[in-house]
Amino acid sequence: MPIFNSGFFWFVEGILCCIVVLGIRAWALDRAIAMPWWKWLAVGMWALFTGFTIAFVGTSLGEGEPTAAVQGGIMFGIVAVLSGVGVWRLWLIGAGPREKQAES
Amino acid sequence: MPAHVRNRRSPKIRLAVYLAVLVALALALRYGRTRAAPDLTVSIRDIFPRADSIIRDRGVFRVYADSGLLIGWAGSGQASGYGGPMLLVTGIDTLGQIVGARVVEQRETPIFWRMARPNDLLASLSGKEFDQIDFDRGRVDGITGATLSSEAIFASVRAGVVDVAAGAFDTELPAQERPFEFGLLEIAVLILFVVGIAAQKARGTSRQRIRWATQIAGLLILGFWKDSPITLAKLVAMLSGFFPPVKTSLAMYLLIAGFLITSFFWGRNIYCLYACPFGAAQRLVGLIGGKSIKLPQWSVRLMEGLRNLIVFAAIFMAFLTLQPALASYEPFAALFSLNGTTLQWILLFVVLVASLLIRTPWCDFFCPMRTFEVAVQDLKVATRKPQQRSSDG
């Protein structure tokens, strides 16, 4: 699939990353959730890993390796989803009980 | 008695279902076993393209060219792999050099069969003197992750070579004694069961702590280190009459014996509760999720019924084709050794993500061991005296 080999794919992925970071910041500020550096580090690492997972699937498809795309996507996808839930729970540390209840 | 094990249908209906299942499986196994034996001469002609006539003599095959000239011998050998016995035929020329070897029949899981690289292993033997081959290489190549398969390939070739050596060259090759494997894995299995049984006397938090400790040990040892949980393929191989050598598969026998004995006599399946690595993985994922959704009873029963149906279909197909590896649908190898079919990977994804929200979904809705556990519990109930049954009920 030529789209995965084009600069457009990376352009879209970059935009998505920026939206995610800005969105998280706005969301946390709205709810007065503390945002120390280690939470940003965890979110950043998770975002990088998730981006890598998407890139892995995309580039594998681009190289004509659908099996690698599926198996690698699932393998890294599992880690991304599980760590995403873990990071989410980490992020809610310091949030008030009402925010926690509302968000979970 | 756990809720899933509790009788929900009348004993007569349950008995009828069990009988129907047993008859269907017995018929499938009988059909699978009555298939025609493989024709070895096809493989021998493949090894010796100049072969015209092949005559069986003193346990080996004498291979003649169309001129009537003897061009070599061939011997067949069988050894036990992961999914059952495999049959290979090995050709040796009149100078005592191996011409080639072919796989006639094998029952390995496709992924592990590919990992064993049978073509490379067999090609490496060509041109070598039959009495100069280091057959222990099968054990060395076992590090590829397909230990049983690669060992069985070499053992099958060796069995064929031994026959040809004795029948054609009047040479007795030294017996290859396999050492009895009793190492850390076997000790760990015994400890897990002993601790699991002892934990039955503990209460509350202590029992939970012990369970976490044994499950994490099981995850590391039986899972990521040895990738040797009980699988349906191994059970089906045994039910088909393909018993792996005790010397090399002691841990598997201990696990299965422990599962059956504790389920029947203690009424608690210690393997699933205290040793199963995949159960531990789901519980750890459940910790990340933090919450557990309680599913409606009707959906639990529906999923349990589907699980039993899947297990029956898997065993039926494996018996019918006499290919135990066909029954292997568990995603264990995908998690523990990163090898699996696309379907197994998808199943692993679904199960682990579901574990975030539902308590051990694989154990309740997919695992064949739960079906066997229910069957063992039912057998226990059926073997009790009537007054005991009524007092329990």
Roughly what percent helix of chain A? Answer: over 70%
Number of domains of chain B: 2
Give the terminus-to-terminus CA distance of chain A. Answer: 38 Å
* Biggest sheet record of chain B: 5 strands, antiparallel
Polypeptide structure, described:
- The complex is a heterodimer of chains A (104) and B (393).
- By secondary structure, chain A is mainly α.
- Chain A has one domain.
- In chain A, 80% of the residues lie in helices and 0% in strands.
- Chain A contains four helices and no strands.
- In chain A, helix 1 packs antiparallel against helix 2 and helix 2 packs antiparallel against helix 3.
- The N and C termini of chain A lie far apart (38 Å).
- Chain B folds into two domains: 234 residues, no CATH class; 129 residues, Sufe protein. Chain: A (Alpha-Beta Complex), CATH 3.90.1010.
- The longest helix of chain B is centred in the last third of the chain and has 25 residues.
- In chain B, helix 1 packs parallel to helix 13 and helix 12 crosses helix 15.
- By secondary structure, chain B is α+β, with helices and mostly antiparallel strands.
Secondary structure layout plus pairing:
The complex is a heterodimer of chains A (104) and B (393).
Chain A: H1 7-30, H2 37-62, H3 66-91, H4 97-103
Chain B: H1 11-33, H2 40-47, E1 51-57, E2 60-65, E3 70-80, E4 85-93, E5 98-105, H3 110-115, H4 118-123, H5 137-140, H6 147-168, H7 184-198, H8 204-225, H9 232-239, H10 250-266, H11 270-275, H12 277-289, H13 297-321, H14 332-336, H15 342-355, H16 361-365, H17 368-383, H18 386-392
Features:
heterodimer, A: mainly alpha, elongated, B: 393 residues, alpha+beta, five-stranded antiparallel beta sheet
Provide a brief overview of the structure.
The mean pLDDT of chain A is 86. Chain A is 80% helix and 0% strand. Chain A has helices at residues 7-30, 37-62, 66-91, 97-103.
